[in-house]
Task: structure prediction
Amino acid sequence: MKTLSALVLGLFAVLPAGAQTLADALESALARHPVAMSAVPRAEAADALVEAAASLTPRPLSASLATLNDRLGADRGRQEWELEIAAPLWLPRQQAAQKALGASTREEVRASQRALRLQLAGELREAWWAVAAARNGEQLAQRRARTASGLEADVLRRSKAGELARVDANLASSERLDAQAALATAHSERLQAEEAFRALSAMDAPETLVPEPAAASDAALPADHPQTAADLAAVQLARDRLAVADAAQREAPELALRLVRERGARGESYASALGLKLTIPFSLGPRARQESAAARAELAQAEGQVALQERKLLQETGKARRELSAGLQQLQLARERLTLATDTLGLAEKSFALGESDLPALLRARAAAQEAETAVKRDEILLYAGQSRLNQSLGVLP
Result:
């Protein structure tokens, strides 16, 4: 694998560096992604949950004021005032479970944002190399159109001079029309690929599409893979939610301080009394069981997702490595074919110029050379795209 990485880096070294990178496009895409835009309020919600778990009571204190008199009855001036301040109390294990839930919520927000960054990176990588392939196709089509126009002019001149038959002129004109039609299609595909990249990143694709370097890790799957970290964070969050549900099988009890001032009739002095009241709610019953069952279902799903995602990532990584290795071999073979096709085309052009071969033979040689050049350029871009896919499967961000 180290030899493969060295060969890939050698291929990348021949390309010029660009001012705009995949990392720039990724930051621009993240700034406009709706899920990424929700990161700040989600982080604030997690911080508020941590802060609430650190408070002395599970809910804020409450105060109530009551009065009682006999105006509708004997109207002797009886008056009673009662002030009550109630404080909810943490259930056993509830506060610790809430603190753990706040911490895991905060971590899940961070991990999910990194996973989102990786997801967007994958979409941008595909769009990046789609633009490269479309631009390369247009450049080859432009070259073919120029060559076909030049050939047509030469054949027409020689046809008028009586050196070539009219059928050769028609063949040359037909080749020029085919080349122009292919150029129009390639131009449209290039515009479409650039528009797709712009829609995703809100940026124009740079003039130079720089390949990514090979990933340094040879591990089957890095331990700090963003998607794995997000899945594990979701598992921990589900566990903490279950712990909170199990710890809150009833509403929080309340301890209240009561202050009572009363008099029996007008003219009597007010008497004061101070008391405590403890309220212990009964179990929530079906509601508690429903919340606990929902939390267990969420945990089971999150744990299953970890195993499923790990198998998927391992499969993608293995596939990317195999495709990259095969891409190197295909590129080497394509370059050898291009060398042979170029030599054959040179011989065919000389033979046609000397009148030793006909136009169809030249057109066949030229088509073979163009096809070989197209294969080389295509395999180069596929190799660079394969390296990006390997980086993506390994969780390497641009």
Summary: Strands lie at 62-69, 79-88, 254-263, 271-279. Residues 286-353 form the longest helix (68 residues). The chain is about 70% helix and 10% strand. The CA atoms of residues 133 and 381 lie 7 Å apart.
